[in-house]
Write a structure and sequence with these properties.
It is elongated and about 90 Å long. It is built from four helices and no strands. 0% of the residues are buried. With 132 residues, it is mainly α.
Length: 132
């Protein structure tokens, strides 16, 4: 009888563990203690050890300085948008396409080779436009 009750208890514990769903989405597999303190579940903040390089969006340049909550607006982290225009205003008003990386990098929005880029565009700079 003791063995049967132990098996039943063990099975119930196992089943309850399987029933717990992560608030971070169905396919989230990161261990809780990577981002949370085990005693209070408080978020560790920037002291957390989560490696964003293991995701589809490694944090490079200025992206590494941004508060996580600016991109992860809900607890399902895979819902974070990856397009530049999801977070950044398109000052070009879609006149140069959607591939921001042709001119910009995550390290800086400053375009160091703007003249060269214009020469390869449908509006190469000539005459007074070069100086503008």
């Amino acid at each position: 009888m003791f063995k049967l009750s132990s098996i039943i208890v063990a099975w119930c514990v196992f089943a309850s563990v399987l029933a717990i769903k992560s608030p971070h989405g169905a396919n989230f597999s990161t261990k809780c203690d990577v981002c949370h303190n085990a005693d209070s579940w408080a978020y560790k903040g920037s002291a957390g050890t989560f490696d964003h390089n293991t995701t589809r969006f490694p944090l490079v340049g200025q992206h590494a300085m941004v508060d996580c909550k600016l991109c992860h607006t809900d607890l399902v982290f895979s819902n974070a948008k990856q397009s530049c225009m999801a977070c950044h205003k398109d000052v070009h008003q879609q006149t140069v396409g959607t591939d921001c990386s042709r001119c910009h990098t995550p390290r800086s929005w400053t375009v160091n080779n703007i003249s060269q880029i214009h020469q390869q565009s449908r509006f190469p700079l000539h005459g007074a436009h070069v100086q503008a």
